[in-house]
Amino acid sequence: MVANDSKGKGGCFAAAGVGVVFLIVLILWTCFYKVPANAIGVRTLMSGGGIEKHDYTPGYVTCIPGLHRVKLWDPTWSNVYHPMDVRGGDGYKTSVDVSVIFRIHQGKCWEVAGKFPSYADIENRVRSSLSQYANAVLTQMKTEDFYNSEVRDKKTEEVQKLMDKQLEEYGLEVKSVMLRNIVYDKVFEEQLLKKQLSGQTLGLEECKTQQVAGEMATEKIEAEAAAEVVSIKETLKQDMANLTAETDQKVNKILQDAQFEANTVTAKATADKRKKVAKADFLRAEATAYGTAAMAKVYAKPGASFYFAQKALTGLKLGNIEVNSSTFNPLDADHLLKALGLDLHAPAPSSDSAGGSSSKK
């Protein structure tokens, strides 16, 4: 019995837990609103409080059924384009698509929600502002200004500033205005084509003129270059001739200096030779005189006469000589030599007298 009671209580608790979870899920499902990542939520009090002055960022917003209402708004940049026919100051009509990049100001979705029932109403208000200022500004342009990017950008910037100033009070921001798909008037296109052809023809003639001028300039440059080459060649030739002459002059000078140096060395050697020969002759004469003086000293020695008489007799080839011992003493060498014609004390005869004596013998 107790076990059955425990099982009954456990079942009741489980059922109660499931009921609580279901109730919580139901409350979250019905009392909270999820704002996605690319949107802003604006909550309205249904009890008469109106729109809350607050933008709800992505996440969950309390939204009790019957008490609150949450509406989503796109805060990102949007593109609205509007086709227009613009009649320019020159009277030609130009068809163009005008694109406007805009968005809701950050933190002003609640303000926009109070002025516009839906996002489509915002786009219609932007198109209305575009028509107003585009017709006022773009009609100031001539047809040819539409293909002039500088003028076109200046005018579209003017339209953007006017629209941004007007739509700012509605909580909107205009980033840029662009012109696309520009279609010109057929009559203007024909005139433009003729003008372009005329301009191209004129440009072609100018190019031809520039080509002729360029060819003439090229020929002039070629002629000047050829003359410059000839001048350079002549200059090089003259420089080579001058260099050759200068080199020959230097070589001749070197040869002359070498010859002069050789002559100087030869003259010096000859003078040294003469000095040495003269010195040798002097030494020879001095030696001869020294020898003569030495011989004279020898002649003066006792017994020298006998020695030289013996040498003289040894060198003579004589036949039989008879000496009369009764007339002189044969041991008297001086007397004997005089008898033979050899006087050691007599002066030496000259070559002529010697020759004459020998002839007489």
Level-1 CATH class name of the domain at 78-184: Alpha Beta
Strand order of the largest sheet: 3-2-5
* Mean pLDDT level: 79
Quick one: CATH superfamily of the domain at 78-184? Band 7 domain
Beta-strand percentage?
A: 15-25%
Helices, strands, pairings?
Layout: H1 2-31, E1 32-35, E2 40-45, E3 50-51, E4 59-62, E5 68-73, E6 78-87, E7 93-104, H2 109-115, H3 119-138, H4 149-167, E8 172-183, H5 186-299, H6 304-315, H7 333-339, H8 351-360
Antiparallel strand pairs: 1-4, 2-3, 2-5, 6-7, 7-8
Helix pairs in contact: 3-4
Descriptive overview:
This protein is α+β, with helices and mostly antiparallel strands and 361 residues long. Among the domains are: 26-73, no CATH class; 78-184, Tetrahydropterin Synthase, Chain A; 301-315 and 325-344, no CATH class. The protein is 61% helix and 16% strand. It has helices at 2-31, 109-115, 119-138, 149-167, 186-299, 304-315, 333-339, 351-360, and strands spanning 32-35, 40-45, 50-51, 59-62, 68-73, 78-87, 93-104, 172-183. The strands form 3 sheets. A 3-stranded antiparallel sheet has the order 3-2-5. Strands 6-7-8 form a 3-stranded antiparallel sheet, with helices on one face. Strand 2 and strand 3 form a beta hairpin. The protein is elongated.
In brief:
This protein has 361 residues and is of the alpha+beta class. It is built from 8 helices and 8 strands. A hairpin with a 5-residue loop joins strand 6 and strand 7 (93-104).
What attributes characterize this protein structure?
three-stranded antiparallel beta sheet, 361 residues, Tetrahydropterin Synthase, Chain A, alpha+beta
